[in-house]
Amino acid sequence: MRALYDVPAPAKLNLFLHVLGRRDDGYHLLQSVFVPIDWMDTLHFERRDDGQLRRHDLTEPLPADDLCLRAARALQEASGCRWGVDISIDKQVPSGAGMGGGSSDAATVLLALNRLWGLHWPRARLQALGQRLGADVPFFLGPGPAWVEGIGERLSPVALPAADYFVVKPAVSLPTREIFAHPLLARDTRAAIVEDFLADPATFGKNDLQAAARALSDEVGQAGRWLEARFGNSRMTGSGSAVFAVVSARNGAAAAAPGKEARWLKELPAGWVGRLCRGLEQHPLSGWASD
Ligand SMILES: C[C@@](CO)(OP(=O)(O)O)[C@H](O)COP(=O)(O)OP(=O)(O)OC[C@H]1O[C@@H](n2ccc(N)nc2=O)[C@H](O)[C@@H]1O
Ligand SMILES: Nc1ncnc2c1ncn2[C@@H]1O[C@H](COP(=O)(O)OP(=O)(O)O)[C@@H](O)[C@H]1O
After folding, report:
1. Numbered residues of the known binding site for ATP
2. Is residue 37 located within the same domain as residue 110?
3. What is the pTM of this model?
4. 110, 136, 157 — which closes off a domain?
5. ipTM score
6. Is the CB of 94 under 6 A from ligand 1?
């Protein structure tokens, strides 16, 4: 195999996110449910014989040593592989949105190079490597929606009812590190069990990072109110700034209604992006690593 084309890197939503405490190294102990959605980046891979790792930005320019290159380098070093790769990236997921775009790109690189370089690493080994690149990376190595604990490395699969979400990313981007360092951040939410969540997945819990994000930018609150006015609910994902609403027949906004998405998009303030997204039952590359 010399090339892989149109390999997806899906974004995620945190259906809720609780901060339970803080470790001695400053990382926070979380509970969350992560769900992959069909707002995705697309990557292309061509193997190189000379061992070099190169990235080509087809859309917006990414940081020089971005997570794709760091993931490729980490796998090359850990496996002792002599192949290199050209990675082309069509970036569609907004950055600094709490949608995990960079982490998902890194995970897709690990899954694709595992194939392209014939490494046959199992998922758990890729996850151990991925965790060193970012707390979200293990989730994006599949297989799908997950109940997440620890700092993001303890994953248990969770079956979710099919759902649509309207996701809005205001103009502002928020750095994860600043949100976790904010004085408004409460770190003492009580631990829940997965059954509590499963009793009512659409309304369970809250996002404990939301107050800090709103304090850093008015736009996060504005995006929440924009969604509340149309769907009757809203919640921030991850450390923001993107906010989403569950879209269902129950709140009178059935996603299937023709023309609805176009109307909502037309109403978005200038500089904001949005999309009607489907929660995915499986990561699109869930079969690419063995368990
Ligand atoms: C909190 C989440 C929830 O999804 O936020 P988003 O990034 O998605 O918004 C993620 O777990 C983030 O994952 P990721 O973005 O990969 O975080 P990292 O690069 O590992 O960490 C960035 C910084 O966030 C803080 N951090 C991150 C994760 C965590 N459990 N506790 C922390 O305190 C640390 O200050 C760290 O230096
Ligand atoms: N491949 C990548 N795509 C997007 N951002 C990246 C990538 N690699 C590194 N980054 C850096 O990570 C930061 C956070 O990006 P991202 O993962 O999209 O956001 P979030 O953690 O809020 O979901 C960006 O501002 C950017 O500097």
Report:
1. 94-104
2. yes
3. 0.96
4. 157
5. 0.95
6. no
